[in-house]
Amino acid sequence: MEGSSGGVVGLSNRSALFEKMLSLCVQVFAILVVCAADSAHRDISYTFKAWNMVDQPLQEQLAAVYKEMESLKHEQAVMKQKQEAFSQALPYCSQKPIDTDVEMNLTSLQTGSSHLLYTLTQDGDGDEGSGEDDSAESLDPCNHYTALNQDWRATNYTTKNAACDRNVQWKGWYRLFYRGKPIQMPERCVKKESCGTHAPLWLVGGHPRIRDGVVTRKVCGNWRNNCCLFKSPPIQVKACRGNYYVYKFVKPVACHLAYCADINTLVCGKCKKSESCMSRDQITYMCKKNKMRVKANIHFFVTYPANISGKVNRIMYRKVYVNQGGAFNTRTGIFRAPVSGVYQFFFSTQTGGSGTTDLWLVVNNYWVAVSHSNVQGSSSVGNLSTYMTTLRKGTTVYVTHNRGRSWATSASNTIVFGGSLLMVRKI
Ligand SMILES: *[C@@H]1O[C@H](CO)[C@@H](O)[C@H](O)[C@H]1NC(C)=O
Ligand SMILES: *[C@@H]1O[C@H](CO)[C@@H](O)[C@H](O)[C@H]1NC(C)=O
Ligand SMILES: *[C@@H]1O[C@H](CO)[C@@H](O)[C@H](O)[C@H]1NC(C)=O
Ligand SMILES: *[C@@H]1O[C@H](CO)[C@@H](O)[C@H](O)[C@H]1NC(C)=O
């Protein structure tokens, strides 16, 4: 279907004949397919009509633009010469002169279809910020902790022999267990006279994510209907790979205070590697699959380096400046969305004759945006149009030159097409 100019939405400002043709195409799908195949063939072999030389002033205008470009090019060449002379004078400073040439290395750019497209990482507790080297790893508290396996610390235990963590010689990092199973500190106020003590200590501000590294958190003890009557010294906490945490406990302010273990977090110990333990209310916890996040870099900017006249079903932009991700195909002139997401496109022309010039952006064979210009007599205008949309993976996007004349030279960059993936989104 690609390259089809059929399947078009109805539009104003269109000749009646053309409208008729369109509706015919829409109604008869079989014909549409034939049309598509036909037009795909014609695209490749279109030729430009000869330009009428009636608009002399316009020619002069474009000639002036061209002259300006040429003089800029000349200036650039002079600068390059100067730079080369400079780097020759300083052979030890610059091994390789800085390339000031504006001509792009098209050979290397156009063969960029095998670029690394995107990488997948786990959302949430991603890899970010955990790039410690080997020496840091050997000191990583996630691997060097003391297991604190004391069932009485659980939130569903009452006070029997009130424990006081002030009497403990705390040293280094600890990981909490309940009957041998991993457990976490409560992130909410805990009822007094529980956790085997009088004023149970809970973690204020919740647990960190892996990417946060070691964080400092306040610790509060609940007493006399005040969740933070005891403001115990802060402790350090670190999230570890495998859904557990380590704590650097210190002596609490008073007796009888003890660090608590939230029995509701026992479920977190059962989370798979691809899951994270989540809680909205800090009461119920559950394992949730990590969202896959795609980091995609899709950007392209291409130009057509010559005049275009009349109807061209698909502009074969062949000068490629940027094709990050290789989603634009120079052979077909089609951009194909490699992932679902929000995309922004732009396309432009510079009119090259009096009358109407229309370029259309075509998304999945629907004409969605026009770059329309209507100039009288001896003027020339540039017109840039933009379009932003959410596309499904595989959607095709290209530009049609529906009518009129567009002016461009190999260096004018007046007939351009470009776009970027702004955000990856599942649809
Ligand atoms: C242009 O690309 C070719 C082929 O990749 C490479 O050998 C050459 O060094 C490039 N030239 C410049 C100026 O980058
Ligand atoms: C606390 O909860 C655990 C897990 O639900 C349970 O096995 C245990 O018996 C409870 N302990 C008390 C003292 O209720
Ligand atoms: C392109 O169009 C301009 C303006 O009509 C004209 O001056 C120029 O000669 C044309 N270039 C080519 C290569 O046809
Ligand atoms: C540029 O395009 C817009 C949108 O199609 C159109 O409304 C406007 O008239 C055009 N500008 C000129 C100078 O033709």
TrEMBL record:
<dbReference type="Pfam" id="PF23283">
    <property type="entry name" value="D8C_UMOD"/>
</dbReference>
<keyword id="KW-0732">Signal</keyword>
<keyword id="KW-1015">Disulfide bond</keyword>
<dbReference type="InterPro" id="IPR057774">
    <property type="entry name" value="D8C_UMOD/GP2/OIT3-like"/>
</dbReference>
<feature type="domain" description="C1q">
    <location>
        <begin position="293"/>
        <end position="427"/>
    </location>
</feature>
<dbReference type="InterPro" id="IPR008983">
    <property type="entry name" value="Tumour_necrosis_fac-like_dom"/>
</dbReference>
<protein>
    <recommendedName>
        <fullName>C1q domain-containing protein</fullName>
    </recommendedName>
</protein>
<dbReference type="Pfam" id="PF00386">
    <property type="entry name" value="C1q"/>
</dbReference>
<dbReference type="InterPro" id="IPR001073">
    <property type="entry name" value="C1q_dom"/>
</dbReference>
